[in-house]
Amino acid sequence: MTDEIRQFVQWVKDSNNIVFFGGAGVSTESGIPDFRSVDGLYHQEYDYPPETILSHSFYMGNTAEFYRFYKNKMLYLDAKPNAAHKKLAELEAAGKLKAVITQNIDGLHQAAGSKKVLELHGSVHRNYCQKCGKFFDAKYILNSKGTPKCDVCDGEIKPDVVLYEEGLDDETMRQAIYYISQADILIIGGTSLAVYPAAGLIDYYCGNKLVLINKSTTPLDRRADLKIEGNIGEIFSQIEL
């Protein structure tokens, strides 16, 4: 165990007011690709760049092409929670972790047992008919042909995920700001801290135990009180409750 990990484990042991803020790197160990990693979606060839396809305007004007990409590249319904997801759920159950704030849309935190999960960018597991509002799960979307249609009114179904050009949910942001501003320890993991407004949430942290866990550098490394490089699942596995 390195000195940095030893310090991290001790901080976690001593605190009952921890908040975790995570990005795509939390789920890569579950087999879900990171958009900005070397092997991620941004480095794979497609008809359009992912940023374009995953935009509100593209969805509205090229719905069928949006869904062709979305079903192939965004739905990993067989993915399972990894060690990081599981340890975060354990920390919450032990009364130490107050909230998970995630940029991910895969639902793996809930699958691991976490209860207080603030999904900044929505979830692939929630899909609604734009005409009548009927709910559909991700499996229905994956198994549909072309653009998913409602089995009641034949309206188009839209996933409850935040696309480029769309704003984040105000209530989710309000809660995220509240939990971060009240936290003793803020752990940030698996995120490039390059996507705003989500990355701006770090500004609301008032404490002196900002932990940054990542495989690579971020624009906000200098803000961290403790920086650990490595696989987040391996690092979290060293926490004993």
Brief descriptors of the model:
single chain; 241 residues; alpha/beta; Rossmann fold; six-stranded parallel sheet; 9 helices; 30% helix; 18% strand; elongated
Write up what this structure looks like:
The protein is α/β, with parallel strands linked by helices. The protein has helices spanning 3-14, 50-53, 56-61, 63-73, 83-93, 108-112, 138-143, 170-182, 232-236; strands at 18-22, 97-102, 117-119, 122-129, 135-136, 157-161, 185-189, 210-214, 226-229. It has a domain at 1-32 and 82-121 and 167-241: 3-Layer(aba) Sandwich (Rossmann fold), CATH 3.40.50. The protein is 30% helix and 18% strand. The strands form 2 sheets. The protein has a 6-stranded parallel β-sheet with strand order 3-2-1-7-8-9, sandwiched between helices. β2, α6 and β3 (117-119) form a beta-alpha-beta unit. The two termini are 17 Å apart. The mean pLDDT is 92. GO terms for molecular function: histone deacetylase activity, NAD-dependent; NAD+ binding; zinc ion binding. It is found in: Cytoplasm. It catalyses: N(6)-acetyl-L-lysyl-[protein] + NAD(+) + H2O = 2''-O-acetyl-ADP-D-ribose + nicotinamide + L-lysyl-[protein].
Short description:
The chain has helices spanning 3-14, 50-53, 56-61, 63-73, 83-93, 108-112, 138-143, 170-182, 232-236, and strands spanning 18-22, 97-102, 117-119, 122-129, 135-136, 157-161, 185-189, 210-214, 226-229.
